[in-house]
Amino acid sequence: MSYALNDLTFPAVSYPNTTSPNDFILLEHSQQSTLTWTNVGIGLSFILFDVGVATVFRLGIGMSLLIAALRCIGQLSVVATLLQSVFENHNPWLVAAICLLLNSLGTFETVINKSPRRFQHMFPAVLVAMLGSTIPISIIGSKYAMSVEPFWTPIQYIPIVGMLCGSTISGIVVAVSYILKEFQENRDKVEIYLAFGASRVEACRPIAMQALKLALTPPINNMSVLGIISIPGMMTGAILGGSSVQQAARLQMIIMFMITASTTLASVLTTLAAITVCVDQQHRVRNERITKNDSRCDEIDGSILNIVAEDERGKSGRGEEERRVGIHRAQRKL
């Protein structure tokens, strides 16, 4: 016997003390192979190959690759054990607790490990931005776009929140890192606007716009290549789980739209928070409220952000000479 919810088939989970068919979500395992730790070890050999390449070329990231792989194994093992219990209990409060935990851990990863710079009260600001973006969008998407009843069905809702958190982290890091870097390196440009009577919103608008463009570039690129160049993981997983290809494709469309919306909303909220903290009500740039993140574990992300920012700076003509021309034009306009 098999049962598919909304024409999509999901892993076998039975909920105790229930009799309704809607309380059972089953998946046929007859044609699926069972993966063991031996299979995981074989997969890990690909990472060892990467470590070897990094060592040969002296890239200095071999240890980072190995640590990231070990974290991946440990974290997914813990999550699998935890989620199995949540799926079996079918308790909305457990689902809410897991979602809060995911957002809290995502905030910690963003502020502590990913961001090369921080601003005062960044942790609560990022936490509010993540909760304010992932939770409403996941609820609306699950209930209306995916027609899941109840919307908090653990086996669907928790993975959705997890995917939204993962993508939202990247957008927040890119946006905030760019803004804080501009405040520190191009403070005089912002102060010129402020000195000529511009509000902090008007003075910071060019920086905020560029930061949001950078944050939304990855989701836009991902949507552009889906289906033609790449088959995403969510669609692949749905197909392997027994769903029809058409249903899997529609599910992936919905997920990508939700990811883009969540990234946009979270990036906007954190951008506004960063501007509010770094430029006070007296229209002064407060660089002392920006600190370098010396405890950041992921050094690779900082380098990537610098490369992206410099590339965008070059594309938009933000050389020293053109910056002076821009300030001169702003003076004439104001």
UniProtKB/TrEMBL annotation:
One of its GO terms (cellular component) is plasma membrane. It is found in: Membrane. It is a multi-pass membrane protein. InterPro entries: UPF0014_fam (IPR005226). Residues 311-325 have a biased composition (Basic and acidic residues). Residues 311-334 are annotated as: Disordered. Its main location: membrane. Keywords: Membrane, Transmembrane, Transmembrane helix. The chain crosses the membrane at residues 40-61, 68-87, 93-112, 124-145, 157-180, 223-242, 254-279. Belongs to the UPF0014 family. This is Uncharacterized protein.
